[in-house]
Amino acid sequence: MKHAAAAAARDGGALRCLTFEITSTLVCRVQVRLWQDNAELPNFGAASLANEREWWRAMIRSTLDQAGCTEALDDETFPLVFQRIYSSFASPDVWAPCPEGASAMRHAKERGLVVSTEHSGLVVGVCSNVYPRYVDQNLPLLGLHRDLDFAATSYEAGALKPSRDVFDAAARKASHVNRLLHGRTQPDVAPGQAHTVLHVGDDLEKDYLAARAVGMHALLFDPDGKAADPAAERGVPASDVIRSLAEVPSRIDELLGAAV
Questions:
Q1: What PANTHER family does the record point to (predicted)?
Q2: Which fold has domain 2-29+96-255?
């Protein structure tokens, strides 16, 4: 990544946006997954249901049915069971902030203020396959909202990563918030300009390779060390695979042309 840092330095520290996947990157699941993805209702039912609550209702009903819990499906019982499960998935009983995520976000904000010029600012967002409630409730619950400038979700974009639609939505939102925070003369945040965006996520296909395909810098978050070999087979440099989000700040500094 040193050549990228040199290019960024020549461009006046032109890294303008840091994005994260949420699930298993900024936020860790502390309970076993309740169900598998439903091919009939992809992307949390964004295209076919009124809201993501209805997707939850369908998923919980399907899971109980598959488990043979027929007593929980009657008209009087199911609303009670649904509410208990639905509420618990917006609680710290299920989710926990991944270590060092908040610190990485804070570092990005602080460095962005230090290097901010007429044509350079740095904003922080999420670019994630999630539904709106995840951003509206779960991130504040875990204290991950304080340094978050924007959220681009698959639900709102109408497509799941690795589709570039989610990354393009992130770039549009980052451009707008960058001008709000750092001045109207700020240039667009463009995913096709490699020096402007750094994306961090835990999925080789949906995060790292998808971000690289649209021209972003990317880091593959691999806390368990399970992705190193598959990543190497796909040509991912070892320096782009990180075991801790504590490694993100130094990468930010490199791309800003101010490695410490």
A1: HALOACID DEHALOGENASE-LIKE HYDROLASE DOMAIN-CONTAINING PROTEIN 3 (PTHR46191:SF2), PTHR46191
A2: Rossmann fold (3.40.50)
